[in-house]
Each structure stands twice: as C-alpha cells, then as structure tokens.
Amino acid sequence: MSDSCLVRQPVFGTSGALTGYEIRYSDSDEGQQALIQSLLSGTFDLVRGRQPAFVACSRAQLVDNTLHMMDPKSAILMLPRDIDDAPEVVEALARFR
Predict the structure, then answer these.
(1) DSSP annotation of 85
(2) CA dist., res. 3 & res. 78, Å (int)
C-alpha cells in the first residue's frame, strides 16, 4: 500500500483575489503516482474547483508525457529552476500548450 498526501494552497493575486490553488502531491515517486491517480479519479478537478491549478512538475514528468491527461487550460506548470532547454523539453512544453 502506498501512502500519499495532497495539499491545496491558495494563490492570491496582487489585489488579494484568489487566482488559483497550488496543488502538491507527495508519495514514494515524487508525487507522480498520486498526481496520476488524482487525474484518473477526478480528484484533481474536484480539488481545484473552477480555479487554475499551479502544479510543480519534474523534467521527467514533462518529457515522459505524464501530464498529457491534464487540461492545459486548467493547470499552470511550475518548472524546476534547473530545467534545461533541450529540444525534448521545449517540445514537451509545446505539446502541453
């Protein structure tokens, strides 16, 4: 059995209005399994409501197309600071748009 944790943190704009929610997943695979399960079960949309979701993703999740089930209109990807601009990364970002 795998333990996982989901955290929803509100994100506010400069005017103080709710802009969306940062959604974090934690499990044994750096959140990958919990993220996939939440997308398949509908929990992702339930947790974000009608607001956009700010979701941290790894280079591997981006390039391996793990996020293909996520609607780009409902999610804002937070990329790692050290991500490179290799062609496969640029192509993965273009596919997500």
Answers:
(1) -
(2) 24
